[in-house]
Amino acid sequence: MTNKKDLETIKKELLKKTENEEEITQDEVLKEIEHLKLTEDEIDDFLQWTRDNGVILDEELDDDIILSDDDELDDNLDIDDEDEDEEKELYRVYADISSIKTNDPVKMYLKEIGVVPLLKAHEEREIAARIREGDETAKDELITANLRLVVAIAKKYVGRGLLFLDLIQEGNLGLVKAVEKFDHTKGFKFSTYATWWIRQAITRAIADQARTIRIPVHMVETINKLTRNSRQLVQELGREPTAEEIAEKMGNNMTADRVREIQRIALEPVSLESPIGEEDDSHLGDFIEDKQAISPEEYASRELLKDEINAVLSTLTDREKKVLELRFGLIDGKTRTLEEVGREFNVTRERIRQIEAKAIRKLRSRSKSNRLKDFVDKI
Predict the structure, then answer these.
(1) Residue 276 — φ and ψ, nearest 5°?
(2) Under CATH, which number does the domain 220-266 receive?
(3) In angstroms, rounded to a whole number, what is the distance separating the alpha carbons of residues 371 and 321?
(4) pTM of full prediction above 0.85
(5) 317 in helix, strand or coil?
(6) Structural domain spans, the chain
(7) pLDDT in tens, 293-332
């Protein structure tokens, strides 16, 4: 499937895959409908449509979601080297986490939710029925019993810009929404229904919060696909692939120019306050030239010129000096017309022209013009 299809096209493709007995994952379908910005009721209707039409969605966590490298995974989850093997297994197999002794916030949370037993199908239906009757306690029971499902889904999004605990929190919000919307009479397994809401909450949070500059959800998925294909090519070629090679790998009429555009969009802004060097005594901004700033030499020259101009103008009468300052913008950088200056002095524009001409004739005398000649020669 490809992005930006309408819902009916997506449904037709799902039916075709179902007829051909092809595997359909929830991840795949979620990515397809994400850009449609479906309302809660529309998502419910879509899920009901999948059930009515025999479309079975694989609930396994799909490998299509990008995982960070092992080193990045360790950094995100704050795993100690000596506990590496044990802790990685903990995050991959979430069913038994109550036996891990730890005081790390993430691990403590996993230990806490691990003591809650998983619900059987008939227990889910019973609790769901109580929720429909307005039992708030039942709602808490269903949420608590499925917190491990959130962890299982959230861990697959580590390395995408949000901390693991933040991913879990966003997923828990999706779980709460699923509990509020779940209708057991429609025949869904709660885990199937909840997975949709959990994934949607996490993917939208990543799109909205993970980057300094927000990127639309469909573009985030395109970036992830490009990143995945680029990594595969690095392994195959033993070097960084070119834009042309990535475009060919991605297919779907992808061009090299489009690849470069996506790579540009994917760039993360870097703070000018980023430390440089081991001692953190300098920052990136210290090494970036301000193209609009003038050099110290030019600044000094301008200040000297300003002083000389003021000295020359001081030989004129106050009215002549003021007229030249207004006409040539020597005060605020804004030049004015004869008429504008005339209004300032409450005289005609012709009178201002005469005053200006007289003042300039005075400045053209050799004794005064020589003081500015050196500056003119340097320009």
Answers:
(1) -120, 130
(2) 1.10.10.10
(3) 17
(4) no
(5) coil
(6) 7-212, 220-266, 296-378
(7) 777 888 888 888 888 888 888 888 999 999 999 998 888 8
